[in-house]
Structure formats: structure tokens, C-alpha cells
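hey can u run this one w/ zinc ion bound, need the C-alpha cells asap thx
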Amino acid sequence: MSVHLTQEIIQNIFTETHALLNGHFVLTSGLHSPNYFQCAKVLQYPNYLTLFSTALANTFRLKEIEVVLSPAVGGVVVGTEVGRLLGTRTIFAERENGIMKLRRGFELKKGERVLVVEDVITTGGSVNEVISIVQSSGSQLCGVGYIVDRSNGKVQFDAKSFSLLTMEVITYKSDSCPLCKENIPITKPGSRAIQV
Ligand SMILES: [Zn+2]
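ok here u go:
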């Protein structure tokens, strides 16, 4: 199956599954935004999980990947599916006392060819921490794949990188928010009002 996933098709899937909400929201930072995004909501549907993971897996198929590594929690679902499609081992890193590390007996072998997979990149922080694990283990970083780039292309990694959708995060300070000026009702994500 080969579907050309345009930005428009992907954006429609996010909207249809309520992963991307439009309106007027208060983010955890306190900033206001016309959008709220929760990638997990789209990945709960196996057809979309497989559709997006196939596009990521195909991008790195010729890289002879031996292991897929994801940062927990967001990257685990998509990482596991990409690994299944590539027929490789899949492992994840998680934080212990704030530090990203491999636990549960997971390990990377010297020289092993690693693909890092994540759901959403905003600052690239978690992915960079996972890349440090790859580097310190002596394995080889062969690519970084993610579904959504919320940095609008600003974040770059030291390997072939690929995202399915590039998105700009629009935020306003509460005292200069045009949506507030228009008296558009505001919602705090996580509250009952947007549990659709
Ligand atoms: Zn506002």
C-alpha cells in the first residue's frame, strides 16, 4: 500500500480524531493558543498508527536499522509499530530522577544501527537526550523519525531526520490575546469541556 500523505491529509486526520482542536485554549505554560494538540488521540486508532508508522519505516528502510529506540512515554507506541514494520528490536528510554536512561535490562550494543522514533518534537529535548544514550553506548545513530514537528523545522538533529507534518505553534500572552479580545470562550485542556 502506498499513499502519498500530504500535509492536508494528515492535518485532516488529526482534526477528525480530535487530536488537533481549534478554538481558544490555555496551555500549561499559561500562554493562550488557538490550537490544542494531543498526538496520542490519533494513535489510538490502529489504521492511523500503521499508516503513519509505515511512512516512517519506509523512509529509513534502506538504513539497515537493527534497533528502534524511543523516549517514553510519547514515542513508545509509534516506535514499537515502526520496529514491527522494520522487523527490528524496539526499546525505549525513560526518566529516572529526571535523567533519561535505558532501564528494564534494555541495552544498545557497540556498532548497532539505531533509529530514534518519537511522536512529537517541540524543542527536541527528549530526542537529544536519547541521542546522547546512543552516542555513549558506541552504537550508531542512523536516523530520527517523528510524526509531528512542532518546531516548524527549527529543531535539527545530527542524522537523517524525517517528520510527517510540520506545524507552527501559535501562542499569545494572556494580556495581548486577540481571541480574548473577541470574547471567544476559553478552555483549559484536560478539563471536561474538551473531553470529546
Ligand atoms: Zn486568550
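The two ends are 31 Å apart (CA to CA). anyway lmk if its weird
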